[in-house]
Structures are given as structure tokens and as C-alpha cells.
Amino acid sequence: MSDKAVFVTQPYLPQLEEFIPYLQDIWDSKILTNGGPMHRQLEQALADYLGVEHVALFNNGTIALLTALQALRITGEVITTPYSFVATAHSLLWNGINPVFVDIDPDTLNLDPAKIEAAITPNTTAIMPVHCYGNPCDVEAIQRIADNYNLRVIYDAAHAFAVEDKGGSILRHGDLSVLSFHATKVFNTFEGGAIICPDAKTKQRIDRLKNFGFVDEVTVVAPGINGKMSEVNAAFGLLQLQHIDKAIARRREIDHHYRDQLNCVKGIQTINGTGQSKANYSYFPILVETDYPLTRNGLYQRLKDNNIFARRYFYPLISEFPMYRGMASAACENLPTASMISEKVICLPIHPALEQDDLEKIVQIIKTS
Ligand SMILES: *Cc1c(COP(=O)(O)O)cnc(C)c1O
């Protein structure tokens, strides 16, 4: 049909000319990293934009997850979701922590709070939920359980940039929240990430951990890592921030178009939000049910044959990868909902530069297959 490839996402890139003055500033200052002026400005700008207390920037979201676990000295077992990008559970393994997978809720596709308690053991120290597709978890139910059992909560909020509930930023919940600014995310700094934390003392510990544990020139207080964001990445974030509302607004239009067009298609189910007052439209997942004429993989292939590269996020489940599948909690019978959803899901292309005719072509293929 068409020759142009359409991908599930495409990084938002402002005009190159707009970035040159930022680069000029870096060349003038000759400060390339180590918490320079761009880094400081972006931390403040993000705290203001997101409406959160403290932002600690990182070189990527995965190192931020690793560091968040270190910052709270998490050990033993951590309850998490199998329905996520693999970095969520990998961050636990890298810290010598055992992930314990708990099933998801069929409506929200997030960790099912009703199933958490049964997975708690004397070794459980924390819960690591994911706001999957930017849809908020049941943060209150999760906090209640955490309070009852004295557990910490670290949200993998990689999908949840700018998402708000009635009380403000979704990132204020739990002990810490972790963002990813990878090229494929709603807000990108090429590579990057951040930890959102409520108090200055924790922020200070995180800042030390991401800089080898240095406190001053001669004092190292922890076996830290190199998690610092460079000045170029931070500068790009400052520029990106000026375009973010426009980018999210275009995503919203695409989301609404898909919903309007696909809601009446037999065998295609769209996913509703989970009560956010501000969404970021980061993904557009659909579930391909048995009464659709094609299987999920059939539709995935049909789109591919038409140069539409949708993605099956999240298939396979994290719990199916070789380093996890031997764990008791990874058994398919323990994760019936996640297993079922993982077999039905396709994420359709959604990004600010997606053109209307491509959008209509995607809808047409789904409607007429
Ligand atoms: C992207 C992503 C990460 C990892 O972030 P990076 O910045 O790519 O390291 C972690 N968790 C989830 C849920 C993600 O989508």
C-alpha cells in the first residue's frame, strides 16, 4: 500500500536551530557534566513543570531505578508487576533483590492491590508498581498495604511524565518515583531519567549515590555509581520542555481519533484511563479479542505488511524471560490476567508527528481486516 514506514513512536525533535544557542552556552562554559548550569536549571524547571518538590536527574531511567533502590536500602524481596518493560525487574536483580511477581488488574493493567497481601513474606521490604501506559495505579490501596506491613513504595513512573490526579502530580505518591527520558518516551533528553523525591535529605543522598558517593573532593560515603546526566542532555531537556504541552496536545488528538473510530469495532477493546485528571497519551494499547476476524498476531502482521510497525507491549511478560521464569511467582497460573492481556495487546502508533493520513490508514486496516 504505502511505502512510508510508520513506527509505534518517533522522538519529538524541535528544530535544530533552536538547540544551537544551548550548545553555544555549553561551549562557552566548557562545563560538560557534573551538575553544571544546564543540569541545575533542568532540575528546577522540571520540579516547577511537574509540580513536585525535588528532581534528581540521571543518565537514564534504569540507573535511576537502581539508585532509587539503593537510596532506600531495599533488600530481600520486592513485589512488582510482570506487565512492564524488562528494566523494572532487572533493576531488582542488579541490586541482589528477588522480584516477586503479582498479577495485574484486568481494567487498569496495573498491579492488582487485592493480590499484593498474599505475596508478602517476612523478606518483603518494598513494592515497585508501574503506572503502565501512564495510567495511575491505585495509589491509595497500595499505600494502605505498604503502611500496614511497613513496606516502601518505589513507583516506576517511566510512562507517567506530566500525569496528574485530582491532588496534583501522580509522581508525589509513594516514597520515590522514577522517570525515564529515553528517546521513545513522551518527554525525552535522548537518554535520561530522574528520581522524584519529597524531601531534601533524600535528594542529597540520591545526588551522592549518582556521583560515586562523593560528598566533597576527598570524602566518599557510599559505593555510588555514575548516574549523572550530561549538560547536552540537560540542555535538550530545557528546550524539549518548551514544546511538551504542544506535543501532548497532538497526542491527545490522536488518542481521541483512535477512540472515536475503534470503539465500535467488534473484537477491538480500547483501554480507559484510570482516573487521571491530566493524561499524557504516551501509548495507545488495544486488546484484540477472539471475536475479531484476525488473531492478535494476525493483526500485528497485517499492520506490518502495510508498513505500520505497531508493538506488542508487553509481550512477552517479564516473568517469561529466562532469568525470571524459574521463580515461583513467575508461574503462568500465578499471573492469569497478565498472561491473557499479554496475548491480546497491541500498541498502535502515537506520537506528535504522526500524520492524519497515516492515522486514518491504521484505523482503516483495523476496521476492514
Ligand atoms: C523505558 C522504561 C524504563 C527504562 O528507562 P531507560 O531510560 O530506557 O533506562 C523502565 N521502566 C519502564 C516501564 C520503561 O518503559
UniProtKB/TrEMBL annotation:
GO MF, one example: transaminase activity
Key word Flavoprotein present: no
Keyword Transferase annotated: yes
Matching Pfam families: DegT_DnrJ_EryC1 (PF01041)
Record InterPro entries: DegT/StrS_aminotransferase, PyrdxlP-dep_Trfase, PyrdxlP-dep_Trfase_major
Similarity remark: Belongs to the DegT/DnrJ/EryC1 family.
Full protein name: DegT/DnrJ/EryC1/StrS family aminotransferase
